[in-house]
């Protein structure tokens, strides 16, 4: 017999005892937001899970297992999914289970594990929040490997918004909007397709974090200013083992190496 209390107990039993990981999301020691919800649904008897899906997979259950409700209707055992269907993997989505109208449990990067929160902002800052009630049970969900919350970048050698957002996730910078903000356009960096070019010289939080990491590992000796210039590009090329010429090409071997590292959820520096 299905039980929302058993679903919530799954979270409570692991609060403070597991960590958050998109890479090691199958338990028993770590989960990500969506794998935790899938395993909790299974513990509650609502699903048979061969492999836990992601937030987009959850959106796909609307109409069979889930029905959308308003925020005011939410009660214990309901679910939230943040982000937009079809574009909710990575930091573009989040999910968890309500313990009451004013509190919810979730596996969170911010808390590095399962936590209970009372502020809706913890459902995913700046993301749209949608709310659902479980209406079905016994649904057999088959999700192939690769259906993680992280998703995979195309190895196309182009530093676009997806690659930028994954870097923001790796370094946990504010916003995670896929934009490399306030860059000064030069021949070295003009093919950072995710860049927002201006003359402010303010720089980007994620480039600042990248420069700090590269400096700590001995690859970068330039100014840590959040601006990706020639010295920064050369440092990245050295760290990633590609030709060191200080220029990001329209289709870049360095960016391909970076994308492979990001897909593995582990930078080699």
From TrEMBL:
Q: Does the keyword Cell inner membrane apply?
A: no
Highest taxon in the source lineage: Bacteria
Q: Which UniProt keywords apply?
A: Hydrolase, Protease, Thiol protease
InterPro entries hit by this protein = NLP_P60_dom (IPR000064), Papain-like_cys_pep_sf (IPR038765), Peptidoglycan-bd-like (IPR002477), PGBD-like_sf (IPR036365), PGBDSf (IPR036366), Phage_lysin (IPR008044)
Q: Which PROSITE patterns would you find in this protein's record?
A: NLPC_P60 (PS51935)
Q: Where is the NlpC/P60 domain?
A: 1-135
Please report which protein family the annotation says this sequence is part of: Belongs to the peptidase C40 family.
Q: What is this protein called?
A: Phage holin
Source species of the chain: Vagococcus allomyrinae
């Amino acid at each position: 017999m299905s039980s929302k209390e058993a679903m919530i107990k799954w979270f409570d039993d692991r609060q403070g005892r597991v960590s958050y990981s998109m890479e090691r999301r199958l338990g028993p020691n770590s989960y990500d937001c969506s794998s935790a919800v899938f395993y909790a649904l299974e513990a509650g008897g609502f699903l048979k899970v061969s492999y836990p899906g992601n937030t987009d997979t959850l959106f796909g259950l609307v109409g069979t297992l889930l029905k959308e409700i308003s925020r005011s209707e939410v009660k214990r055992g309901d679910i939230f999914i943040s982000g937009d269907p079809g574009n909710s993997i990575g930091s573009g989505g989040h999910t968890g289970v309500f313990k009451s109208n004013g509190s919810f449990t979730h596996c969170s990067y911010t808390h590095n594990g399962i936590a209970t929160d009372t502020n809706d902002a913890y459902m995913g800052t700046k993301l749209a929040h949608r709310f659902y009630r479980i209406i079905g049970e016994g649904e057999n969900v088959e999700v192939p490997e690769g259906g993680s919350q992280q998703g995979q970048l195309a190895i196309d050698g182009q530093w676009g918004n997806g690659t930028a957002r994954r870097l923001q996730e790796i370094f946990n910078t504010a916003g995670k909007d896929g934009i490399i903000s306030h860059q000064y356009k030069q021949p070295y960096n003009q093919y950072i397709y995710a860049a927002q070019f201006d003359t402010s010289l303010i720089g980007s939080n994620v480039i600042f974090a990248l420069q700090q990491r590269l400096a700590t590992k001995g690859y970068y000796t330039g100014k840590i200013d959040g601006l990706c210039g020639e010295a920064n590009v050369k440092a990245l090329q050295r760290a990633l083992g590609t030709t060191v010429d200080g220029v990001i090409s329209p289709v870049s071997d360095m960016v391909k190496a970076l994308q492979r590292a990001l897909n593995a959820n582990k930078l080699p520096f």
